[in-house]
Amino acid sequence: MRNEQPLLRWTTQTLSPEATQSLAERLGRLLRPGDVVALIGELGSGKTVFSQGLARGLGVPKTFYITSPTFAIINEYPGRVPFYHLDLYRVSGPGELSELGLEEILYGQGAVAIEWAERLDKELPAERLEVHLTFLNEMGRNIAFSAFGDKLEKRLATLVSFYKSANERS
Ligand SMILES: Nc1ncnc2c1ncn2[C@@H]1O[C@H](COP(=O)(O)OP(=O)(O)OP(=O)(O)O)[C@@H](O)[C@H]1O
Ligand SMILES: [Mg+2]
To answer: Model's pTM, two decimal places?
Structure first.
C-alpha cells in the first residue's frame, strides 16, 4: 500500500447494513467524475453493501442491483456520474492487474469504488478516499475514512460536517 499521510481522517460506526448503506449514499451524493473510493476490509465486512449505497447516491437507478462483480471484475452502471464497481478479489497479482487496463477507469470520468483495493498496492491512485471496514460484532462495523488529495479531502470534510450537525440537532 502507498504509505503517504492522509489529509483528513474520520471514523464512525454503523449498527446495521442499512446504516452503512445510508452513510455511503450520503457520500455518493458528494462524488464527482474521477473520484476513487478504495474499500478495504475482510470478507463480509460490508464493502459491497457500502458500494450499493454509493450507487444510490450517484443516482444509479434502483432497477440495477449491485453485487460483487464475481466474474467481470468491473461492472459499470449509469448514474448522475457513471459508476464503476471493481472487485479485485480474484485478481492474482500485479501482472494480471496491468493486463486489465485499469488506468482508463481509475483516471477516467466516472466515480470508482474498488473492493479489495489494497491489491492495487503501488498502483492505487494517489488521490483517493480509503474506507477501512472492520467488524465490531455481527451487525456492527467500524468504518474509518482516510482522504488522500485535496478533492477527496473536501468530500470527506462535507460528509463529516453533515454528521456533526446531525448530532448537534439530536
Ligand atoms: N453494519 C453493517 N454494515 C454492513 N454490512 C453489515 C452490517 N451488519 C451486518 N452486515 C452484513 O454483513 C454482510 C456484508 O456483506 P458484503 O457482501 O457487503 O461484504 P464484502 O465486504 O463485500 O465481502 P466480500 O469480500 O465477500 O466481497 C451482509 O450480509 C450484511 O447484511
Ligand atoms: Mg463484496
So the answer is: 0.95
